[in-house]
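Marked as duplicate of an earlier ticket. Keeping the data here for the record.
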Amino acid sequence: MKRVIATPNEDIVVFIIGLRINRLRSVRKWWPTVQAMTPMIEECYEQQVGLLSHEMLVGWRSVTLIQYWRSSDALIAYSHGNRHLTAWKKFNQSSRASNAVGIFHETFEISNYETMYVNLPTRGLAKAVGESTIQKHQEQAKDRLAERKVSTRE
């Protein structure tokens, strides 16, 4: 059994962004919003702007990206870049008023976390910051949280 944790070595920003298709038949209104996501993710990795990793969750009427960023400053700087501003402008011009698609985002600055992954390929926070095998003193979630608190005080 493979048991690992995300290496607790740095603060992280978790950015969750997504969309919900409200009117399935209004494809011309929501499809450009769906299409805009992939090029922006590719650009983040190519230009190494601070995106460490991401995961995409696809639901019946929704797409959600969980992104792990090096810092809030890096995330905000990217949001002011040309590709993102162009996509945002297009959304505001063509989709926002129609209610065919809704979008959201949430940003979390994380200084303490604990994780555990059992029998999985590397994913989530471990993919973003690295992983290590769980040690004897890290068996319990409370111990992993306490360990991170101690290491950030030093």
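See parent ticket for discussion. The first strand starts at residue 3 and ends at 6.
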